[in-house]
Amino acid sequence: MKPIRYAVMLAFVFVVCQAQSPVAMSAVSASPAVVKAAVNYTIHVEWKDAKKGTNSLEVVTTEGSVELDTISGAVKINDSDIPTTVKFTGTIIELSPVKGRLQLFLGRTVPYVTGATPGPGNSRSSSYSQMSVGLQSTFIVTFGKPLTIQTDDNGTVSILVQRGGD
Questions:
Q1: SS (H, E, C) 8-38
Q2: Most confident segment among 17-21, 58-62, 79-83, 123-127
Q3: Contact in structure between 105 and 87 (CB atoms under 8 Å)
Q4: Does the pLDDT value for residue 87 go beyond 50?
């Protein structure tokens, strides 16, 4: 008779474990999703040029991509003023409440002559194209602390990223 009691006891343990297993699994799968609050970031870029002085741009954005093209001046080609622009594109991703990763392109468009045709008298007609030149890189920034990203004989470029709500 002892072997039968042992078999009944094993069957009882198996049934108890089977009954508890689904309860434990449903408790794990019911965890709530974490929702991240939206935050505004102010990105301030300043560049000091030996010839043109200090210039800056500032954008306010949320986490993700940002793009800015703005006219910064003109270059004369023959008798025409051809506009030049400052170009800023980037992506900001928060790594923690105090640091973020900023991937950016900071540059300008430069017109260049692609062809010239003689005109009446001594005049010339030129065709031109625009080329983007600048710095493309990724930086880890500390919110609220300026970061110098380039310094040479031509000037200095610095970035300040501030996290909204701080």
A1: HHHHHHHHHHHHHHHHHHHHHHCCCCCCCCC
A2: 58-62
A3: yes
A4: yes
Strands 80-94 and 155-163: unpaired
**Overall pTM surpassing 0.85 (yes/no):** no
* Residue 133 or residue 34, greater confidence: 133
Say if CB 56 and CB 162 are below 8 A apart.
no
Q: What is the spatial distance between Cα 112 and Cα 131, in angstroms, rounded to a whole number?
A: 8
Cβ proximity of 130 and 111 under 8 Å: yes
Q: Decide if pLDDT at 18 tops 50.
A: no
Q: What are 159's two structure tokens?
A: 């970035």
Cα–Cα distance for residue pair 39/112, rounded to 1 Å: 41
Whether the Cβ atoms of residue 141 and residue 43 lie closer than 8 Å to each other: no
Q: Torsions phi, psi of 98, nearest 5?
A: -115, -10
- Residues ≥6 apart with Cβ < 8 Å to 166: 97, 143, 144
